[in-house]
Design brief:
By secondary structure, this protein is α+β, with helices and mostly antiparallel strands. It is about 30% helix and about 10% strand. The protein contains 4 helices and 7 strands, in the order αββααβαββββ. The radius of gyration is 24 Å and the shape is elongated. It starts with 10 loop residues before the first helix and ends in a 21-residue tail after the last strand.
Length: about 210
């Protein structure tokens, strides 16, 4: 006598279905995260381009000089000096992938701003007697603007709006190990974060340093 097969899934079939659903979910989540990270990266790149435009306008109205990281004579950081040229929109200084950014007030922005000024090359500060050797940099003194790194994505925490070889860009911001860099001629590059570290010449670039001729 033939046994009638019971309707429904067997345990093995259920386990197979669960495994397949898990794999598909993992693929879907990975894809969604990738799309979200790329979108954040593109929006951040647009912000950096806007900063580049603001830098150009600032220089034109400042006798060809670049802003410094911190101008003690007026009590402002570089982003505050550029703020009027981005319509006072502080979101320009915020990477969408940088959740630690806090726009509550100027102090929290200074602590958590998403981008870091390459002050070792383009200007540290003026007006501080303890750093009497620092001064503003005129654009025309740079022989190779296309190789002069102005800023990149900053560190994740306590950025204070600057980058150095010991205070580099966050490598995990966009999930791909890359960072966005702005150069003095206005172009941007999305490169491996390690390219903007001690292994790269951008922080002491002889070919980009101001000419003293």
């Amino acid at each position: 006598m033939l046994m009638k097969r019971q309707s429904g899934f067997s345990l093995i079939e259920l386990l197979v279905v669960i495994a397949v659903v898990g794999i598909l979910s993992s693929i879907l989540i990975t894809g969604v995260n990738h799309v979200r990270n790329k979108s954040s990266q593109m929006k951040s790149a647009a912000n950096v381009r806007s900063i580049g435009g603001a830098l150009h306008m600032y220089s034109q109205e400042s006798d060809g000089n670049l802003p410094v990281w911190h101008d003690y004579t007026v009590g402002k950081y570089w982003w505050q000096l550029l703020r009027p040229y981005v319509n006072d929109d502080d979101e320009v200084f915020h990477s969408p992938a940088h959740e630690e950014f806090d726009a509550t007030n100027d102090t929290t922005i200074a602590q958590t701003i998403s981008y870091g000024w390459n002050f070792a090359v383009v200007g540290r500060h003026i007006g501080d007697k303890s750093y009497s050797g620092d001064f503003v940099q005129p654009v025309f003194l740079f022989d190779n603007p296309g190789k002069t790194l102005v800023l990149t994505d900053g560190p994740r925490y306590d950025s204070w709006g600057y980058i150095t070889i010991l205070h580099p860009a966050d490598p995990d911001r966009y999930g791909d190990g890359k960072a966005i860099g702005l150069f003095l001629d206005g172009h941007i590059e999305i490169r491996e974060q390690v390219d903007f570290t001690i292994e790269d010449p951008y922080f002491i670039p002889e070919e980009a340093m101001p000419s003293m001729k």
